[in-house]
Amino acid sequence: MPVTAGDSVICRMMATTVLLSVIRAWAENGCAPEGWPSVAKDPFLDRVVAAIHTEPGREWTVERLAGVGAMSRSAFAERFRTALGRSPADYVTEVRIDAAKRMLESGRSVAETSRELGYASDEGFSRAFRRRTGMTPSAWRAAQRVPVPA
């Protein structure tokens, strides 16, 4: 197939699009280093998001999160939902479940994971985990294991 004049431009644009999509997903999952574009694009909300990722097991109430963001509860809840497209409680749960997956993969017990992430009971943790993943923490961990050849 012959090369046309615009092929290199199209190829560069496609590569740029893929790269930007990867960087955006990386930043949205809290993996970006200091100074990278923020998730919320709001310095006050960025402090809140950073605090949640730093201490996912803390008892995060709307009032406490609003305090981190130096806002009233109502202003915070509205700004958070507008910027991140979900409620603060939903975001905290997502961060906790992502942390739980990493902890379970590293061999931590369900009870230890539950306590460290601030759940009042293992049952409450299991229910929250199942709502997000479709399976219990134990079943999820078992499904992640790769069988060792005999």
Describe this structure in words.
- The protein has one domain (about 40-145): Homeodomain-like (Arc Repressor Mutant, subunit A, Orthogonal Bundle).
- It is about 65% helix and about 0% strand.
- The protein contains eight helices and no strands.
- The protein has helices at about 5-30, 45-55, 60-70, 75-85, 90-105, 110-115, 120-135, 135-145.
- The termini are far apart.
Shape: flat
What's the gyration radius in Å?
Answer: 20 Å
**How many β strands by DSSP?**
0
CATH superfamily: Homeodomain-like
Helix content: 55-70%
Brief write-up:
By secondary structure, the protein is an all-alpha fold. 65% of the residues lie in helices and 0% in strands.
Which helices and strands occur, and which strands form pairs?
Blueprint (H helix, E strand, L loop, with lengths): L6 H22 L14 H12 L7 H7 L4 H12 L3 H18 L4 H7 L5 H12 L3 H8 L6
Features:
Arc Repressor Mutant, subunit A, single chain, mainly alpha, 8 helices, 150 residues
